[in-house]
Amino acid sequence: MSEQPAFLNFINGSFAAPASGGYFAVHEPATGQIYATVAASDSRDVARACEAAEKAAPAWCAMPTEKRAAILDTIASKLESQLERFAQAESKDTGKPVSLARAVDIPRAVSNFRFFAGAIQHFASECHPTSSDVLNYTLRHPLGVVGCISPWNLPLYLFTWKIAPALAAGNCVVAKPSEVTPATATMLAELCAEAGLPPGVLNVVHGTGLEVGEAICTHPTIKAISFTGGTKTGARIASVAAPLFKKLSLELGGKNPVLIFDDADFDAMLATTLRSSFSNQGEICLCGSRIFVQDGIYDHFKAEFVKRAKALRVGDPLDASTEQGALVSEQHHAKVRSNLDLARNEGGTILCGGEVITPPGRCAKGWFLAPAVMEGLPHACRTSQEEIFGPVASLYRFKTEEEAVTLANDTPYGLASVVWTRSLDRAHRVAANLHAGITWVNCWMVRDLRTPFGGVKQSGVGREGGWEALRFFTEPKNVCLKLS
Ligand code: NAD
Which of 74, 123, 177, 374 has the most CB atoms around it within 10 Å of its CB? Predict the structure, then answer.
């Protein structure tokens, strides 16, 4: 154990052991082995981080925007120059193919810093000339110290999606990455210090949701919580933070529909639907897990989709040809398998996949699962309604547009949705009628960081991205000036 890295907290500009002196094991999902430990922190560490952040806040907030933006730009450049190191670490920590971390996770983390370094320099507030002698103008002050809590599926990508706008807007941050995937947030904290981020501006506290997450959500210094994770956790956070009048942004779970009409561009749709179902082993909140296919092409789609899902190469995430890595933890692997058992009991037919895969060599004890495609499930059953968050997609046949939209909207969630059609009229109509924060038409996961990102219903409250994020991380103050 002594040669294994220990991921420590980063408080007030340096690494610190947790007050408890305790550590958890961190596993490499591809091998099932412990490869590191992480600080088992508690409310004492959160209190230290909050104190450091509070002390750093006045100077960070007073720093000219251009200078703050330059530091964020330097972080982006440093991260970009170490892309391979971060991609390897992300792949080891999560089980995702290193090719994906290299192409998506780390480049998008770089973009998050670069984008908000630019955005904050264009962020303007409103001025309302009310009459010839009255002028209203709105100041937007940083909130002070904010809490950012992120999940394990896209660790650095989602961590930076929160801290970049928070820092750009002039806040100091106490952040908690998932205890399951603590590596890259720890590496980033060090890199931020090297890039000139002053001590206390970004603090990373590791530990469980109950010990550290709740301490962040209830600490009096923290003015806002930006959270991404499961819906149940979001509800718990709202229940503790709302009575303390903290600002809340909640990005939660999904059960995203993909609507495929007869007139879709079949080849483009098939290739993208394979990605939207199984990218990152289906562990992306935006993955489409309910695939509604119009009657005329259902059988053809089913045959081709199953053939392509079966052909996906599952194995060592470090292998350049791997398309599906390991699931993030033993517990999650067991949960997804139990969801497949439930699907069978609920009347579903597993058309392919679902079996445990044992790759040869170093990954023989890893948490791998063959991508599964199902059909025949009633839409009201648990498998059709509850988030699985793994490499599992269900097919449903529909006849009319109305039927497809009604079924698509029939879940407690409303994060993302995808529509495949060549009809412009239908694309607009369906996009407008889907109960989701995001609709992609004839594409998936094409991102523009200026657009609002988030969900409706149990998929969340509030929006991230662009001005939405900068507004969330600032407090508007209106000044009404009467000229004499
Ligand atoms: P999770 O809710 O278990 O954990 C997320 C984070 O919250 C972790 O850092 C965890 O330690 C912390 N946490 C847990 N309990 C807490 C509490 N009581 N108080 C404060 N913090 C607490 O989620 P997960 O398993 O890490 O991630 C998977 C979930 O995240 C899925 O439901 C997925 O859909 C969702 N997700 C949503 C989005 C989105 O943008 N909407 C993006 C990615 C993932």
Answer: 177
